[in-house]
């Protein structure tokens, strides 16, 4: 029976059926053949969504879209370019820097790729950068988004594992910074080797002016973290405060957001949030079936049966997640696998917060790897270049991602140092 569940799911995925519906259809087939009452479907779907914490997802999505509609993308790019544009390959470095700044607004890698990429990839190509390289820089740097707070995958992890979302947010700061700064290394080295252009050095006045333009957007992350960690509001309340803040900044400070824009932004946010919630609901049903078939225990026993050495177990888990991340959407993978793998990780002594960051980062790397890497696909579409060419250009950036992942997995203080300060 378990074989039918997985075979039907994989077949549907490779037929191009959206992940949420692949999960739903494969679960339905299982229930019919196993002669289980179909009334279990709404029960398990509602059970997956019946969480106060999950309410912050629509809020953060709306806040990010409001800030983006209010002109945040151009301001962050301008600030990053004023700092880094004078270096060889400066526009590529600014691309990475803008992704790090935008990460605190969107919380999703795909939003980063689409927003930053639509501006930076054409600009880089126009200045003489290769289309494949421009797309690779954008796709790789966009995975920083879900590591630096606020992060939608971290919210899912916190909900599933009853882990403090504030601690998870803070735990992602150092890994996110390491990944972003690390990606600048191959960007610079390749730019020097290929003699990509550099811009003029900005004056201190220009740097300050661009910083002030981006300040109000970047400050939203500070408000969210300070409020949650200081105990002033919950993550759900923080998302609503972020929405109010974004409206005020967009309407009265940046003045690029208008009242007429609000219905379209809200509708777009509703669509995105609904798709995520539907995915979580179907993934919870799928996960219930896995539990019924005792698949989590089988996976745990298989991993620990292969080796009880902590380092080996961690590597096996990361290999599994890297493989899953190449074809499964991140949130679906988290909902299905996090409850399965968390007991294995804790059994070898890994802190749940550290494991949550490791799992999110590993799955993020899958977003820029074929065959289903959505960031890779979107970047190649914007750059009008084949996925194969972008994939080749991605190799050094992927290597940096693996190095940071190993650092996060085997050096606990990379993730646990900042949360320990707020205990």
Number of helices: 21
Task: Sketch the major β-sheet.
Answer: none
In helices, the fraction of residues equals over 70%
Helix- and strand-based class? mainly alpha
Give the tally of β-strands: 0
Number of domains: 2
Task: Determine the mean pLDDT.
Answer: 86
Q: Which oligomeric state applies? A: single chain
Radius of gyration: 21 Å
Order of helices and strands: HHHHHHHHHHHHHHHHHHHHH
Tertiary shape: globular
Characterise the protein shown here.
The structure is a single chain. The model has no long low-confidence stretch (mean pLDDT about 85). The chain folds into two domains: about 1-40, no CATH class; about 50-420, no CATH class. It has about 425 residues and is mostly helical. About 80% of the residues lie in helices and about 0% in strands. The longest helix is centred in the middle third of the chain and has 32 residues, at about 260-290. It has helices at about 1-15, 20-35, 40-50, 55-70, 70-85, 90-105, 110-125, 130-140, 150-160, 165-170, 175-195, 205-230, 235-255, 260-290, 295-305, 310-325, 330-345, 350-365, 375-385, 385-410, 415-420. Helix 8 (about 130-140) packs parallel to helix 20 (about 385-410) and helix 9 packs across helix 17.
